[in-house]
Amino acid sequence: MRGLALAFAASFELLECPAFANGSLDALAKEMARLGPVVGPGIVVAAPLTSDEPGDKEDLPVHLATLIAAKLGTGVTAHPRAATLAGARITVGPAKTLIFVRTSVTMGAVHVAADLYSEPANVWDRVRSPAPALVRQAAATATIDAQTRVRLTPLDLNRAQLQRFRLDEEDVLAAGCGDVDGDGREELLLVSRHRVSLGHLEDGAFSAQKTVAWSELAPRAPVPLREPLCGAVATAGAILVGSTDYGGVALSMDLSKQDQLAGIPVWGGRPNSCLVAQPSAGAFDGAPVDCAPSRDPKPTMAVPAPRFDAFAAADMVSANGDVRRLVAVREPSGRLKVRWGDESSGVQGLFGAALAVGDLDQDGSPEVVTTTAAGDAIDVFTFAAAGAPETRIHLSTPEPVRAFTLCPPSEHGAPALAAVVGREVWLVRPELAGPAKSSSR
Protein backbone atom coordinates (compact mmCIF):
# COMPACT_ATOMS: atom_id res chain seq x y z
CA MET A 1 0.00 0.00 0.00
CA ARG A 2 1.50 3.33 -1.06
CA GLY A 3 1.72 6.14 1.42
CA LEU A 4 0.12 6.49 4.78
CA ALA A 5 -3.05 7.97 6.17
CA LEU A 6 -3.00 9.83 9.45
CA ALA A 7 -6.45 10.32 10.86
CA PHE A 8 -7.84 12.82 13.29
CA ALA A 9 -11.26 12.49 14.87
CA ALA A 10 -12.65 15.16 16.48
CA SER A 11 -14.77 13.75 19.35
CA PHE A 12 -16.53 17.52 19.82
CA GLU A 13 -16.30 21.43 19.67
CA LEU A 14 -17.80 23.69 22.39
CA LEU A 15 -18.72 27.35 22.00
CA GLU A 16 -16.70 29.42 24.47
CA CYS A 17 -15.73 26.28 26.40
CA PRO A 18 -12.28 24.70 26.80
CA ALA A 19 -12.09 21.93 24.21
CA PHE A 20 -12.15 18.37 25.53
CA ALA A 21 -12.46 19.50 29.17
CA ASN A 22 -15.90 18.04 29.89
CA GLY A 23 -18.73 16.05 28.44
CA SER A 24 -21.17 18.07 26.36
CA LEU A 25 -23.85 18.54 29.05
CA ASP A 26 -21.33 19.36 31.78
CA ALA A 27 -19.75 21.97 29.50
CA LEU A 28 -23.14 23.49 28.67
CA ALA A 29 -24.09 23.65 32.36
CA LYS A 30 -20.79 25.37 33.08
CA GLU A 31 -21.55 27.99 30.42
CA MET A 32 -25.03 28.60 31.87
CA ALA A 33 -23.40 29.27 35.25
CA ARG A 34 -22.49 32.68 33.78
CA LEU A 35 -26.06 33.65 34.70
CA GLY A 36 -25.05 33.58 38.37
CA PRO A 37 -24.42 34.19 41.08
CA VAL A 38 -28.00 33.69 42.19
CA VAL A 39 -28.64 35.24 45.59
CA GLY A 40 -31.39 33.57 47.58
CA PRO A 41 -33.72 30.81 46.41
CA GLY A 42 -34.14 30.10 42.71
CA ILE A 43 -35.58 27.45 40.43
CA VAL A 44 -34.47 26.15 37.03
CA VAL A 45 -37.30 25.09 34.71
CA ALA A 46 -36.69 23.41 31.36
CA ALA A 47 -38.80 23.85 28.26
CA PRO A 48 -39.72 20.68 26.34
CA LEU A 49 -36.97 19.57 23.97
CA THR A 50 -37.00 20.67 20.36
CA SER A 51 -35.23 17.98 18.32
CA ASP A 52 -34.75 16.63 14.81
CA GLU A 53 -34.62 13.13 16.34
CA PRO A 54 -37.54 11.03 17.63
CA GLY A 55 -37.72 10.09 21.30
CA ASP A 56 -38.28 11.51 24.79
CA LYS A 57 -38.74 15.30 24.76
CA GLU A 58 -38.36 15.79 28.51
CA ASP A 59 -35.50 13.63 29.82
CA LEU A 60 -32.60 15.59 28.30
CA PRO A 61 -33.76 19.15 29.13
CA VAL A 62 -34.79 18.21 32.70
CA HIS A 63 -31.44 16.53 33.31
CA LEU A 64 -29.62 19.57 31.92
CA ALA A 65 -31.70 21.81 34.20
CA THR A 66 -30.49 19.74 37.16
CA LEU A 67 -26.86 20.20 36.12
CA ILE A 68 -27.38 23.95 35.69
CA ALA A 69 -29.04 24.28 39.09
CA ALA A 70 -26.04 22.57 40.72
CA LYS A 71 -23.73 25.12 39.09
CA LEU A 72 -25.75 28.16 40.20
CA GLY A 73 -25.59 27.54 43.94
CA THR A 74 -27.04 25.68 46.91
CA GLY A 75 -30.21 27.76 46.95
CA VAL A 76 -31.12 26.85 43.38
CA THR A 77 -33.15 23.74 42.55
CA ALA A 78 -34.43 22.18 39.33
CA HIS A 79 -38.09 21.52 38.59
CA PRO A 80 -38.64 17.79 37.85
CA ARG A 81 -40.88 18.39 34.81
CA ALA A 82 -40.58 20.39 31.62
CA ALA A 83 -42.94 23.36 31.21
CA THR A 84 -43.71 26.36 29.06
CA LEU A 85 -42.57 29.81 30.19
CA ALA A 86 -46.09 30.59 31.43
CA GLY A 87 -46.13 27.34 33.40
CA ALA A 88 -42.66 28.04 34.73
CA ARG A 89 -43.74 31.42 36.08
CA ILE A 90 -46.57 29.71 37.99
CA THR A 91 -44.09 27.11 39.26
CA VAL A 92 -41.77 29.72 40.76
CA GLY A 93 -44.01 30.21 43.79
CA PRO A 94 -42.07 31.76 46.67
CA ALA A 95 -38.76 31.57 44.79
CA LYS A 96 -37.34 34.95 43.87
CA THR A 97 -35.43 33.85 40.77
CA LEU A 98 -36.54 31.84 37.72
CA ILE A 99 -34.04 30.39 35.24
CA PHE A 100 -35.88 29.21 32.14
CA VAL A 101 -33.85 26.89 29.88
CA ARG A 102 -34.63 26.11 26.23
CA THR A 103 -32.83 23.13 24.67
CA SER A 104 -32.77 22.04 21.04
CA VAL A 105 -30.96 19.25 19.19
CA THR A 106 -30.32 19.77 15.47
CA MET A 107 -27.76 18.34 13.04
CA GLY A 108 -25.53 16.79 15.68
CA ALA A 109 -25.40 19.71 18.11
CA VAL A 110 -27.10 20.66 21.38
CA HIS A 111 -28.12 24.32 21.61
CA VAL A 112 -29.03 25.82 24.97
CA ALA A 113 -30.41 29.27 25.76
CA ALA A 114 -31.27 30.34 29.30
CA ASP A 115 -33.06 33.42 30.64
CA LEU A 116 -32.86 34.58 34.25
CA TYR A 117 -35.97 36.33 35.58
CA SER A 118 -36.20 38.11 38.90
CA GLU A 119 -39.47 38.36 40.82
CA PRO A 120 -40.62 41.86 41.85
CA ALA A 121 -38.93 42.83 45.11
CA ASN A 122 -42.05 44.06 46.95
CA VAL A 123 -45.82 44.38 46.68
CA TRP A 124 -45.68 47.79 44.97
CA ASP A 125 -43.31 46.45 42.31
CA ARG A 126 -45.65 43.50 41.76
CA VAL A 127 -48.57 45.89 41.24
CA ARG A 128 -46.63 47.94 38.67
CA SER A 129 -45.16 44.88 36.88
CA PRO A 130 -46.58 41.52 37.97
CA ALA A 131 -44.47 39.48 35.51
CA PRO A 132 -40.87 38.61 36.45
CA ALA A 133 -38.25 40.90 34.90
CA LEU A 134 -35.68 39.49 32.47
CA VAL A 135 -32.28 40.18 34.01
CA ARG A 136 -29.66 38.12 32.18
CA GLN A 137 -29.37 35.70 29.23
CA ALA A 138 -26.82 33.09 28.15
CA ALA A 139 -26.45 30.70 25.23
CA ALA A 140 -24.03 27.94 24.23
CA THR A 141 -23.66 25.05 21.82
CA ALA A 142 -21.95 21.66 22.13
CA THR A 143 -21.52 18.75 19.75
CA ILE A 144 -23.42 15.60 20.74
CA ASP A 145 -21.33 12.99 22.55
CA ALA A 146 -22.09 9.99 24.75
CA GLN A 147 -23.28 12.17 27.63
CA THR A 148 -26.00 13.58 25.39
CA ARG A 149 -26.68 10.43 23.35
CA VAL A 150 -27.59 8.40 26.45
CA ARG A 151 -30.70 10.61 26.70
CA LEU A 152 -31.57 10.49 23.01
CA THR A 153 -32.35 7.74 20.52
CA PRO A 154 -29.40 5.27 20.48
CA LEU A 155 -27.28 4.72 17.38
CA ASP A 156 -26.87 1.22 15.94
CA LEU A 157 -23.38 0.66 14.55
CA ASN A 158 -24.37 -2.79 13.30
CA ARG A 159 -26.88 -1.17 10.94
CA ALA A 160 -24.58 1.49 9.54
CA GLN A 161 -25.40 2.97 6.14
CA LEU A 162 -22.81 3.06 3.36
CA GLN A 163 -22.69 5.81 0.74
CA ARG A 164 -20.13 5.90 -2.06
CA PHE A 165 -18.90 9.06 -3.78
CA ARG A 166 -16.77 9.37 -6.89
CA LEU A 167 -13.27 10.79 -6.37
CA ASP A 168 -11.12 12.25 -9.15
CA GLU A 169 -8.16 12.93 -6.84
CA GLU A 170 -5.23 10.52 -7.14
CA ASP A 171 -2.67 9.35 -4.57
CA VAL A 172 -4.63 10.55 -1.51
CA LEU A 173 -2.49 9.88 1.57
CA ALA A 174 -4.41 11.58 4.39
CA ALA A 175 -7.83 13.07 5.09
CA GLY A 176 -9.51 15.34 7.60
CA CYS A 177 -13.16 16.27 8.16
CA GLY A 178 -14.83 19.16 9.96
CA ASP A 179 -16.82 22.37 9.60
CA VAL A 180 -13.82 24.63 9.05
CA ASP A 181 -15.72 27.71 7.85
CA GLY A 182 -18.62 27.56 10.32
CA ASP A 183 -21.38 27.31 7.70
CA GLY A 184 -22.90 24.17 9.24
CA ARG A 185 -21.54 21.78 6.56
CA GLU A 186 -18.57 19.47 7.04
CA GLU A 187 -15.67 20.00 4.66
CA LEU A 188 -13.53 17.07 3.56
CA LEU A 189 -9.80 17.81 3.44
CA LEU A 190 -7.67 15.56 1.22
CA VAL A 191 -3.87 15.48 1.08
CA SER A 192 -2.13 13.76 -1.82
CA ARG A 193 1.46 13.59 -3.00
CA HIS A 194 1.05 16.68 -5.18
CA ARG A 195 -1.78 18.80 -3.82
CA VAL A 196 -4.23 19.69 -1.04
CA SER A 197 -7.98 19.81 -1.74
CA LEU A 198 -10.91 21.08 0.32
CA GLY A 199 -14.50 20.37 -0.66
CA HIS A 200 -17.79 18.59 -0.01
CA LEU A 201 -19.38 15.23 -0.68
CA GLU A 202 -22.40 16.07 -2.81
CA ASP A 203 -24.31 14.78 -5.82
CA GLY A 204 -22.53 11.43 -5.66
CA ALA A 205 -18.99 12.81 -5.84
CA PHE A 206 -16.30 14.74 -3.99
CA SER A 207 -16.54 18.33 -5.19
CA ALA A 208 -13.30 20.22 -4.60
CA GLN A 209 -14.03 23.85 -3.75
CA LYS A 210 -10.38 24.83 -3.38
CA THR A 211 -7.13 23.15 -4.45
CA VAL A 212 -3.49 24.11 -4.01
CA ALA A 213 -0.32 22.41 -5.21
CA TRP A 214 2.30 21.47 -2.62
CA SER A 215 4.88 23.32 -4.71
CA GLU A 216 3.03 26.58 -3.90
CA LEU A 217 3.18 25.91 -0.15
CA ALA A 218 6.73 24.80 0.61
CA PRO A 219 9.99 23.66 -1.02
CA ARG A 220 10.41 19.94 -1.49
CA ALA A 221 12.72 18.10 0.90
CA PRO A 222 16.16 17.46 -0.66
CA VAL A 223 15.98 13.76 0.26
CA PRO A 224 12.29 12.83 0.56
CA LEU A 225 11.09 9.52 1.92
CA ARG A 226 10.30 6.86 -0.66
CA GLU A 227 6.81 6.57 0.82
CA PRO A 228 5.76 9.97 2.27
CA LEU A 229 4.06 10.22 5.64
CA CYS A 230 1.16 12.67 5.57
CA GLY A 231 -1.32 14.24 7.96
CA ALA A 232 -4.49 16.34 7.75
CA VAL A 233 -6.49 18.15 10.44
CA ALA A 234 -9.73 20.02 9.72
CA THR A 235 -11.42 21.74 12.66
CA ALA A 236 -13.42 24.91 13.19
CA GLY A 237 -11.29 27.75 11.86
CA ALA A 238 -8.18 25.62 11.30
CA ILE A 239 -6.71 23.69 8.38
CA LEU A 240 -3.42 21.87 9.06
CA VAL A 241 -1.68 19.65 6.52
CA GLY A 242 1.69 18.00 6.33
CA SER A 243 3.90 15.71 4.29
CA THR A 244 7.44 14.49 4.87
CA ASP A 245 8.10 15.71 1.31
CA TYR A 246 7.26 19.33 2.21
CA GLY A 247 6.82 19.65 5.99
CA GLY A 248 3.75 20.83 7.87
CA VAL A 249 1.83 24.04 7.19
CA ALA A 250 -1.20 25.85 8.56
CA LEU A 251 -3.53 27.11 5.83
CA SER A 252 -6.17 29.82 5.62
CA MET A 253 -9.70 29.17 4.38
CA ASP A 254 -8.55 29.80 0.78
CA LEU A 255 -5.68 27.28 1.26
CA SER A 256 -2.97 29.90 1.26
CA LYS A 257 -0.05 29.31 3.63
CA GLN A 258 -0.24 30.99 7.03
CA ASP A 259 2.44 29.37 9.18
CA GLN A 260 5.06 26.65 9.17
CA LEU A 261 4.45 23.81 11.62
CA ALA A 262 6.89 21.86 13.77
CA GLY A 263 6.02 18.58 12.07
CA ILE A 264 3.21 16.58 10.50
CA PRO A 265 -0.17 17.58 12.05
CA VAL A 266 -2.17 14.74 13.62
CA TRP A 267 -4.31 16.34 16.34
CA GLY A 268 -6.58 19.37 16.29
CA GLY A 269 -7.15 19.72 20.03
CA ARG A 270 -5.48 22.20 22.35
CA PRO A 271 -2.66 22.54 21.64
CA ASN A 272 -2.52 21.38 18.04
CA SER A 273 -0.11 18.43 17.91
CA CYS A 274 2.42 17.35 15.29
CA LEU A 275 4.69 14.35 14.81
CA VAL A 276 8.35 14.42 13.86
CA ALA A 277 9.49 11.86 11.29
CA GLN A 278 12.72 9.86 11.49
CA PRO A 279 13.79 9.57 7.82
CA SER A 280 16.25 6.74 8.42
CA ALA A 281 13.44 4.62 9.92
CA GLY A 282 10.68 5.73 7.55
CA ALA A 283 8.49 6.29 10.61
CA PHE A 284 7.66 8.73 13.38
CA ASP A 285 9.83 8.81 16.46
CA GLY A 286 8.45 9.85 19.84
CA ALA A 287 5.32 11.51 21.15
CA PRO A 288 3.44 14.37 19.43
CA VAL A 289 4.62 17.90 20.19
CA ASP A 290 3.01 21.32 19.95
CA CYS A 291 2.72 22.29 16.28
CA ALA A 292 4.11 25.75 17.06
CA PRO A 293 7.86 25.65 16.26
CA SER A 294 9.99 25.72 19.42
CA ARG A 295 13.60 25.18 20.41
CA ASP A 296 12.43 22.93 23.23
CA PRO A 297 9.28 21.10 22.03
CA LYS A 298 7.21 19.52 24.77
CA PRO A 299 5.19 16.29 24.34
CA THR A 300 1.45 16.93 24.23
CA MET A 301 0.37 13.35 25.02
CA ALA A 302 1.76 9.91 25.77
CA VAL A 303 1.90 7.24 23.05
CA PRO A 304 1.71 3.44 23.44
CA ALA A 305 4.85 2.76 21.34
CA PRO A 306 8.04 4.77 20.75
CA ARG A 307 8.13 4.35 16.94
CA PHE A 308 5.19 4.04 14.56
CA ASP A 309 4.04 4.88 11.04
CA ALA A 310 0.35 5.61 11.71
CA PHE A 311 -1.30 7.60 14.50
CA ALA A 312 -4.83 8.52 15.62
CA ALA A 313 -6.19 10.09 18.79
CA ALA A 314 -9.49 11.35 20.24
CA ASP A 315 -10.88 12.37 23.61
CA MET A 316 -13.55 9.86 24.55
CA VAL A 317 -16.57 10.97 26.60
CA SER A 318 -18.45 8.46 28.74
CA ALA A 319 -22.19 8.53 29.39
CA ASN A 320 -21.59 10.27 32.72
CA GLY A 321 -19.34 12.94 31.18
CA ASP A 322 -15.91 11.58 32.14
CA VAL A 323 -13.21 12.17 29.52
CA ARG A 324 -10.31 9.86 28.67
CA ARG A 325 -7.93 10.18 25.76
CA LEU A 326 -7.52 7.27 23.36
CA VAL A 327 -4.31 7.07 21.32
CA ALA A 328 -3.70 4.34 18.73
CA VAL A 329 -0.53 3.75 16.73
CA ARG A 330 0.61 1.20 14.17
CA GLU A 331 4.17 0.00 14.55
CA PRO A 332 6.24 -0.47 11.35
CA SER A 333 5.82 -4.22 11.85
CA GLY A 334 2.06 -3.84 11.37
CA ARG A 335 1.11 -4.37 15.02
CA LEU A 336 -1.49 -2.10 16.60
CA LYS A 337 -0.98 -0.54 20.04
CA VAL A 338 -3.62 1.38 21.98
CA ARG A 339 -3.42 3.66 25.02
CA TRP A 340 -6.72 4.57 26.70
CA GLY A 341 -6.23 6.92 29.62
CA ASP A 342 -3.31 5.44 31.60
CA GLU A 343 -3.66 1.90 30.26
CA SER A 344 -1.88 0.51 27.20
CA SER A 345 -2.56 -2.71 25.30
CA GLY A 346 -1.97 -4.40 21.98
CA VAL A 347 -4.35 -5.85 19.42
CA GLN A 348 -3.63 -9.29 18.02
CA GLY A 349 -2.87 -9.48 14.32
CA LEU A 350 -1.24 -7.33 11.66
CA PHE A 351 -2.95 -4.28 10.21
CA GLY A 352 -2.69 -1.72 7.41
CA ALA A 353 -1.47 1.85 7.61
CA ALA A 354 -4.87 3.61 7.59
CA LEU A 355 -6.02 4.37 11.14
CA ALA A 356 -8.73 6.37 12.94
CA VAL A 357 -10.33 6.42 16.39
CA GLY A 358 -13.57 7.81 17.77
CA ASP A 359 -16.97 6.95 19.22
CA LEU A 360 -19.02 6.16 16.11
CA ASP A 361 -22.17 5.12 17.97
CA GLN A 362 -21.70 7.57 20.89
CA ASP A 363 -22.15 4.91 23.57
CA GLY A 364 -19.00 5.86 25.51
CA SER A 365 -16.94 2.91 24.25
CA PRO A 366 -14.42 3.93 21.58
CA GLU A 367 -13.99 2.47 18.13
CA VAL A 368 -10.65 1.89 16.44
CA VAL A 369 -10.87 1.84 12.64
CA THR A 370 -8.13 0.16 10.64
CA THR A 371 -7.66 -2.19 7.69
CA THR A 372 -6.38 -5.65 7.05
CA ALA A 373 -2.64 -5.91 6.42
CA ALA A 374 -3.29 -5.88 2.66
CA GLY A 375 -5.55 -2.85 3.01
CA ASP A 376 -8.44 -4.60 1.20
CA ALA A 377 -11.03 -4.43 4.02
CA ILE A 378 -12.23 -1.96 6.64
CA ASP A 379 -12.30 -3.26 10.22
CA VAL A 380 -14.03 -1.41 13.06
CA PHE A 381 -13.28 -2.61 16.61
CA THR A 382 -15.04 -1.47 19.79
CA PHE A 383 -12.98 -1.24 22.98
CA ALA A 384 -15.06 -1.83 26.10
CA ALA A 385 -13.83 -1.07 29.61
CA ALA A 386 -12.41 -4.59 29.89
CA GLY A 387 -11.75 -7.51 27.61
CA ALA A 388 -10.59 -7.94 24.04
CA PRO A 389 -11.82 -5.55 21.34
CA GLU A 390 -15.05 -6.59 19.60
CA THR A 391 -15.29 -6.57 15.81
CA ARG A 392 -18.30 -4.46 14.83
CA ILE A 393 -17.78 -3.97 11.09
CA HIS A 394 -15.78 -5.93 8.52
CA LEU A 395 -16.24 -4.40 5.10
CA SER A 396 -14.36 -5.74 2.09
CA THR A 397 -13.19 -3.15 -0.43
CA PRO A 398 -12.51 -3.64 -4.15
CA GLU A 399 -9.38 -1.49 -3.94
CA PRO A 400 -6.93 -0.67 -1.11
CA VAL A 401 -8.02 1.81 1.56
CA ARG A 402 -5.78 4.87 1.38
CA ALA A 403 -7.00 7.07 4.25
CA PHE A 404 -9.55 7.38 7.05
CA THR A 405 -11.06 10.31 8.89
CA LEU A 406 -14.04 10.69 11.22
CA CYS A 407 -16.58 13.42 10.48
CA PRO A 408 -18.32 15.07 13.45
CA PRO A 409 -22.03 14.43 14.13
CA SER A 410 -24.45 15.89 11.61
CA GLU A 411 -27.28 13.84 10.08
CA HIS A 412 -29.47 12.48 12.95
CA GLY A 413 -26.64 13.48 15.27
CA ALA A 414 -24.48 10.59 14.11
CA PRO A 415 -20.74 10.81 13.35
CA ALA A 416 -19.50 9.29 10.10
CA LEU A 417 -16.42 7.41 8.97
CA ALA A 418 -14.99 8.65 5.67
CA ALA A 419 -12.68 6.19 3.90
CA VAL A 420 -10.76 6.87 0.72
CA VAL A 421 -11.05 3.62 -1.25
CA GLY A 422 -9.25 3.80 -4.57
CA ARG A 423 -11.07 6.45 -6.62
CA GLU A 424 -14.02 6.69 -4.24
CA VAL A 425 -14.88 8.09 -0.81
CA TRP A 426 -16.97 5.72 1.30
CA LEU A 427 -19.10 7.29 4.03
CA VAL A 428 -20.22 4.93 6.83
CA ARG A 429 -22.78 6.36 9.26
CA PRO A 430 -24.69 4.53 12.08
CA GLU A 431 -28.48 4.54 11.94
CA LEU A 432 -30.88 5.48 14.70
CA ALA A 433 -31.65 2.28 16.60
CA GLY A 434 -35.13 2.87 18.02
CA PRO A 435 -36.91 4.46 20.99
CA ALA A 436 -34.59 6.00 23.56
CA LYS A 437 -34.07 4.09 26.75
CA SER A 438 -34.89 5.53 30.13
CA SER A 439 -32.49 7.91 31.83
CA SER A 440 -31.63 5.32 34.48
CA ARG A 441 -29.16 3.51 32.24
Shape summary: elongated
- Model regions low in confidence, pLDDT < 50 over at least 5 residues: 1-20, 436-441
Tally of helical runs = 5
* Main pleated sheet: 6 strands, mixed
Separation, N- and C-terminal Cα atoms: 44 Å
Average pLDDT, rounded to a whole number, is 88
Rg calculated over all Cα atoms: 24 Å
Structural class comes to mainly beta
* Secondary structure: helix percent: under 10%
- Strand fraction: 35-45%
DSSP E strands, number? 32
Protein architecture, described:
The structure is a single chain. This protein is mainly beta and 441 residues long. It has helices at residues 24-32, 59-72, 85-92, 123-128, 146-149, and strands at residues 42-46, 50-51, 76-78, 97-106, 109-118, 133-143, 155-166, 172-178, 187-192, 195-202, 205-213, 230-235, 238-243, 247-251, 257-260, 264-267, 273-275, 277-278, 283-285, 289-290, 307-308, 310-317, 323-330, 336-340, 343-347, 356-358, 367-371, 377-382, 390-396, 401-407, 416-421, 424-432. Strand 24 (336-340) and strand 25 (343-347) form a beta hairpin. Helix 1 packs across helix 2 (59-72). The longest helix has 14 residues, at 59-72. The chain is elongated, with a radius of gyration of 24 Å. It starts with 23 loop residues before the first helix and ends in a 9-residue tail after the last strand.
